[in-house]
Amino acid sequence: MEHIVIIGNGISGVTLARHIRKLSNKKITIISAETDYFFSRTALMYVYMGHLKFEHTQPYENWFWEKNKINLKKGYVNTIDTDSKTLHFAEGDTITYDKLVIATGSKPNKFGWPGQDLKGVQGLYSKQDLDNLEVVAPNNQVCKRAVIVGGGLIGIELAEMLNSRNIPVTFLVRESSFWNGVLPEGESEMINRHIKKHHIDLRLSSNLKEIISDENGKVKSIIIEETGEELTCDFVGLTAGVSPNISFLEDSKIETNKGVLVNRYLETNIKDVYAIGDCAEQREAIGNRRPIEAVWYTGRMMGEVLAQTICGNSMQYNPGHWFNSAKFLDIEYQTYGWVFGSKGRPDYETHFHWKHDDDTKCITIAYHKDTNQFLGINTFGIRMRHQTFDQWLTEKRDVDYVVNHLAEANFDPEFYKHFEKDIKAAFNNQLQTA
Amino acid sequence: MSNKLNYSMSLANSYGLSKSQKIASAIGILGLFIFLLAIFNVQFTNRGLVLTIALLLIAFGTVWFANNAYLNTSEGIKNDGVWFKSISSRGLIGWLTGLVLTGFYIVLYFFPELLGLTEKGVANTGLIALFDPLSRLLSGNPASQWFVYGTLYTLAILAFGYKFILKYRHNRYEKIRTGSVMFFQLAFAFLIPEFMARLNSDSFSLPYYDLKNIWPLNYYNFEQYRVNSMISAGDIGTGLLIFGIASIFIITPILTYKYGKRWYCSWVCGCGALAETAGDSFRQLSDKSQFAWKVERWVIHSVLVFVVLMTTAVVHSYLGVDNTKYWLTKSTFLILVASLLTIVFVGAFVFKRKELAKDAKYGAIGYFVIIISLFAIYYFSSNSNLFLFKPETLRKTYAFLIGSIFSGVIGTGFYPIFGNRVWCRFGCPMAAILGFQQRLFSKFRITTNGGQCISCGNCSTYCEMGIDVRAYAQKGENIVRSSCVGCGICSAVCPRGVLKLENDSMKGRINPNEILLGNDVNLMDLINQK
């Protein structure tokens, strides 16, 4: 029986294992050094905030794995010998495979800041990060102030987490407005105001210069590059993005760049070795997508596809229309298709932006300025139907159609106020004045 | 597991009560303390005034607490620290609260004399006497233990309903739904029966009850004394009897078809009202395991079989045998019941074969138990007094085991241990009937939003019915489950906007997906259209 070994028990690896099991009787082993069982990484924040216990983040009950004959092995892979198809564990034992899948995810970026390895300085990615956070920032007596470096999705989640325990937070964001490398101006500015409303000390256009240690090797304060200001703090969260967690491959023959280089079939340069999820890097980017997509959904999709290939139905990774979602404190965000911020926006892309007076809801519709073709939508505080937008993107609807049929895409709970009329009026108004 | 880290430290101040919340709690407890004094027969000179003060203190304490907890914060999900607080995570305070509630129910059901209930004609004492002024004001009669219970029950729903509305003030579905349960409790469950009681006199006697309380939840509605008094009360009484029957066979099926069982369970029902308001803090404690789901299906359907048999036996016992006197005789009645059951089960098997699959055999077992029992009732009762179980014994057993122990002592007393919907999930026969229809013949479902689920588990954790909502959402599959009461909280707590309660067409309502939306179109087609 062919032995499929998957390194990493995150969403990519587990989705792959589940689908291989559905399609075949192959022997499957999932290896993880992080946890015994698969859990939802995106839910770690809710454990710290007390919404969930850790076991609630596990989507399958513990009997699931044995019942489906998916072997789970806890261990850290030190090296991979692709010639003999053998994995060597830090614990000293080995395992052989017929096909190997690398799905080891990401690790938080550290950009060589002085003091970045001090006690009380960490990212937020793994279960271990959560456990550490619970030690260094359990409450606002042990942690009197926290500083977060990096204004992305993990940064704002960490800010919300610390805020839930009344720990004062200073949030250093390199950009001139929160996440404006991705979000258009109006949205980014609305989120700035929302962050400040939650009493988070948001510092825009601010970089970390260095982290200063106390006599015990623990963080004491940080210095801001631009102002030279020194902030006393007990915790520093490094959330300036993530990069593939592949340092254990350095001595192997598997070709890597930032991530494990793969072709459209998710194959590496070595036969019978594949990579999926956050740690995989496409040799050529697909459409507007980045070569490395560190997103829950793409990890899952790669797992779904690779299962086909491994089970004999060779298939390219060919994702559909882009979508994503997040939550900024109280404001939910969804996106379908492509809406660019000012950075990297194609010349032909133009925007229609509508914002509600209460400053918690807005949408931005991107469309082609010449053809009026609908390109994508960002929606804040209003839930939209994935399927509807997916269909409109496939049908290449124009922006007028989308604005006029927006009610069909609404996914808010029943009895919620609808804003389609306001949005339509604003759209028509904009056209007249433009 | 090792995830039980040093949370005790973090409890230090972030999740403790604020000063105002402590004072507010103390005010509420002071109100309850007055009741305790009354139980121990402290004599109050002006009972009406003391009762008013006690009720107001409880209401005021709760309202102040809620204002302080929610009005100073932004609108949004307020579950911070739920699993760190002793009361809401089966801590010491949770267990103590459970013990006190359970003790209260045991006294209420089995030792009402401890609350001050006396024999007929003798003035009440203790706590029940304290409620006499209010009872006389409403119905003209002295209070009973049920009046005391009803008043406190209504107060709990109103006060905690207010708290719930503040907690979910960003969510119009939750606000309107909570307004609905508060209204139905105050008007239908509490006030109207009291006013109906006023209509009664020596010459006119009508059962006064909560009109929205439908059989089989109201398992005693068709007992002989009630049916007799309804029939003898002229047009109004007959109207009530017809309404009671129409509720089961006409009103309920239509509303459940259009809106799912939520129209009753989380919008109208009194048990649901208490669970959704006072019980809201305990919703996360329900057991989500597949094992619990198995137990649930066996237990709730057994209760259903039990109540159908019991009611049939009871009604059968007081009907006549001579069809020249009245058309509805013992045997006609049994044939009617058997025919109805056969129509329902054959209908389900013929039209819903595919959806039933595994559950079909359980349904068949239940059906055959009832049918064979009907034969037994017929055979044994026509021969002699010999009978497997006397109708009266059945009725008493049901009233004790299900009506008191299950719905009261366990159902509500154990809120802080098993969650707030134990009765609705494992015991309520009404929920079983509505659920059966919801699963097979209703427009209601919870729609999942394409591929947006991140499997975080908030929906499953906060499902009071113990449905593993995530298991469906992460497959992009709509949730069509008999037990779903449509409270809407899974949708509210979802951080990615994945869940929506909807009434839509029956077609394509159940839609398991192997590959989720967002992936290669060809792959999705290949796998999902198999």
Automatic annotation (TrEMBL), chain A:
PANTHER family linked: NITRITE REDUCTASE [NAD(P)H], PYRIDINE NUCLEOTIDE-DISULFIDE OXIDOREDUCTASE DOMAIN-CONTAINING
GO molecular function: oxidoreductase activity
Cofactor(s), by name: FAD
Keyword field: FAD, Flavoprotein
InterPro entries: FAD-bd_OxRdtase, FAD/NAD-bd_sf, FAD/NAD-binding_dom
Protein name: Pyridine nucleotide-disulfide oxidoreductase
Homology family: Belongs to the FAD-dependent oxidoreductase family.
Residue ranges annotated for the FAD/NAD(P)-binding domain, each copy included: 3-283
SUPFAM superfamilies in the record: FAD/NAD(P)-binding domain (SSF51905)
Automatic annotation (TrEMBL), chain B:
Domain of life: Bacteria
GO molecular function (one): 4 iron, 4 sulfur cluster binding
One CC-aspect GO term: plasma membrane
Residues spanning the membrane: 23-42, 48-71, 92-111, 146-166, 178-197, 236-257, 298-319, 331-350, 362-380, 400-418
Domain 4Fe-4S ferredoxin-type: 444-472, 475-504
Keyword Transport: yes
Coiled coil: none
The protein's name in its UniProt record: 4Fe-4S binding protein
Origin organism lineage: Bacteria, Pseudomonadati, Bacteroidota, Flavobacteriia, Flavobacteriales
